[in-house]
């Protein structure tokens, strides 16, 4: 009987895992460029897609004589029809050749469906990476991080220079981010573009080594803070209001997408083992690094903590002060992100052998995959503590 229960438990876990792979609801996903091409070849899909794009643009009068509720019904009908097409479930890949075009298509489908900006779903295809895979390959991480007296950030920079790809892309952003002219300190636009390429193209074992290196003294933390050349990529003469900065970000397809990806993959959850809703530090770090090189570029606030923030504040927020503070706190006081950064720097990951079930949340369609993790007996004082194991298959269900 016990053997049968174990088999049933494993079968249930397999069902959840396979459902996650299939992307329920939605099945196999095409990237939005391919899905759009496919849609345009089918007359009914093409007509509905054009209608929806005009709905999103608020140009009902340009495509229909209907006004008011009739126009809204036509928009709703177009969306319902497209739900049956591959275009509805399309996603993009970060750094893909036609990323901006892919994201433009995605948002033309989805931006009319979203409410609060913090609830926007990520337009990027899940990477399904594990932080431990990065650790296994990384040459930077110390075997005994607590006892290390060296400058890990300096070691990471040296390791980057020994890797042709890392060295090339690092040099490519250092030049525009530091060169000065008579009129300005640097060309921020070129600096941002080069930084995006660095974090999109350089393997995480090198780029993360420089950005998330563990430190025990100010010299190290200051080097970590200077990784992105903040005087050019981050700082400005004045700090804008965070909500205004967010609005500016939303006008750019890449920035809006990277921000939505960050909200999705670094969503804190106090009831989870890792303090992350998705129980995946690697996805959170990838999402965070993806913001660097946009107008929302974050950086370490100072040399004394792992708190980060974009270059903005909540002064002059008026009646929107609570909303602004909520936005800023998602960066500054995000325990999921802090744990992920600390975990990489210390060479640790969440150690627990149990299925992590989806946690009910009010965020957009972000569900946690059911993942099995191995229990680790050795801990350091920098390791993320695990909760007590719950009974196997407790409350296991397909949602």
Would you mind describing this structure in some detail?
Residues 370-389 have a biased composition (Polar residues). Belongs to the GDNFR family. It is found in: Cell membrane. The protein has three domains: 29-111, Annexin V, domain 1 (Orthogonal Bundle); 149-235; 238-350, Annexin V, domain 1 (Orthogonal Bundle), CATH 1.10.220.110. The chain has 18 helices and two strands. The two termini are 26 Å apart. It has a two-stranded antiparallel ribbon. With 399 residues, it is mainly α. It has helices at residues 2-22, 32-40, 43-56, 60-63, 69-82, 99-110, 131-137, 152-161, 164-178, 188-201, 204-211, 218-225, 230-233, 242-250, 253-265, 281-291, 321-332, 335-346, and strands at residues 298-300, 308-310. Residues 1-27, 59-66, 137-148 and 351-399 have low confidence and may be disordered. Strand 1 (298-300) and strand 2 form a beta hairpin.
Helix content: 40-55%
Mean pLDDT: 76
Q: H/E order of the elements?
A: HHHHHHHHHHHHHHHHEEHH
Query: Looking at this structure, what is the CATH superfamily of the largest domain?
Result: GDNF binding domain
Fold-level CATH name of the largest domain:
Annexin V, domain 1
Provide the gyration radius in Å.
23 Å
Tell me the total number of β-strands.
2
% residues in beta strands: under 5%
Organism: Certhia familiaris
Membrane topology: Lipid-anchor; GPI-anchor
InterPro entries: GDNF/GAS1 (IPR016017), GDNF_alpha (IPR037193), GDNF_rcpt (IPR003438), GDNF_rcpt_A1 (IPR003503)
Protein name: GFRA1 protein
Give the structure's gist in a few sentences.
By secondary structure, the protein is an all-alpha fold.
């Amino acid at each position: 009987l016990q053997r049968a229960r174990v088999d049933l438990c494993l079968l249930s876990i397999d069902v959840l895992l396979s459902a996650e792979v299939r992307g329920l609801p939605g099945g196999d996903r095409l990237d939005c460029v391919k899905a759009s091409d496919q849609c345009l070849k089918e007359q009914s899909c093409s007509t509905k897609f054009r209608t929806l794009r005009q709905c999103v643009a608020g140009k009902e009068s340009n495509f229909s004589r209907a006004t008011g509720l009739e126009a809204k019904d036509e928009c709703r009908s177009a969306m319902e029809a497209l739900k049956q097409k591959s275009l509805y479930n399309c996603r993009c890949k970060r750094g893909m050749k036609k990323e901006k075009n892919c994201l433009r298509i995605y948002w033309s489908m989805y931006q009319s469906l979203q409410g609060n900006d913090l609830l926007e779903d990520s337009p990027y295809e899940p990477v399904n990476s594990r932080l431990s895979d990065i650790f296994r390959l990384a040459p930077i991480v110390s075997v005994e991080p607590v006892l290390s007296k060296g400058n890990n950030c300096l070691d990471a920079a040296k390791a980057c220079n020994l890797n042709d790809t890392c060295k090339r892309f690092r040099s490519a952003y250092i030049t525009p981010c530091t060169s000065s002219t008579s009129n300005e300190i640097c060309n921020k636009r070129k600096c941002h573009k080069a930084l995006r390429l660095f974090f999109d193209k350089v393997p995480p074992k090198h780029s993360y080594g420089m950005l998330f290196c563990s430190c025990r003294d100010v010299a190290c933390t200051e080097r970590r803070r200077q990784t992105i050349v903040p005087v050019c990529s981050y700082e400005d003469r004045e700090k804008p209001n965070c909500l205004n900065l967010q609005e500016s970000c939303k006008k750019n397809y890449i920035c809006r997408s990277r921000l939505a990806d960050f909200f999705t993959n670094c969503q804190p959850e106090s009831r989870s083992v890792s303090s992350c809703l998705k129980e995946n530090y690697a996805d959170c770090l990838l999402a965070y690094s993806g913001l660097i090189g946009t107008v929302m570029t974050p950086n370490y606030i100072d040399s004394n903590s792992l708190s980060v923030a974009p270059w903005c504040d909540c002064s002059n927020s008026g009646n929107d002060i609570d909303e602004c503070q909520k936005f800023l706190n998602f960066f500054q006081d995000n325990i999921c992100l802090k744990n992920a950064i600390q975990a990489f720097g210390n060479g640790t990951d969440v150690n627990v052998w149990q299925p992590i079930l989806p946690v009910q949340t009010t965020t957009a369609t972000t569900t946690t995959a059911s993942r099995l993790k191995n229990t680790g007996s050795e801990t350091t004082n920098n390791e993320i503590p695990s909760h007590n194991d719950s009974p196997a298959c407790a409350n296991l269900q397909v949602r």
